[in-house]
């Protein structure tokens, strides 16, 4: 299981091999269960896998940054976003897994912060807090902390 309150990343077969910066995002609930937008009207829920397999990287969102949000509030925001996305069609360009994760974060911040697909990708790929999930081996260089991620 992935760490709780984390953004996870899984490689997309073939595509991530050609373009390592491209992958599939999901977000975990307060106990570490992964949720990811998997297609028209479908949000995947799994303890171990995204729709493209097990995640290889994650960044756990900072306790300092998100500490005012209880586990119940976290899971409620995730549940509200899941309900919305179970009514949405998937579109690779305008409604995908990245948009789903950004929508959860926006709900958690009560709309105060603007999360976009580009800010999410940039923050995840450049975060000092990105970690490899054990037994997965994809190298990643890290530099910043734009999502309020832990800096351990």
UniProtKB/TrEMBL annotation:
Protein's organism: Giardia intestinalis (strain P15) (Giardia lamblia)
Lineage: Eukaryota, Metamonada, Diplomonadida, Hexamitidae, Giardiinae
Protein name: D4Ertd196e protein-like protein
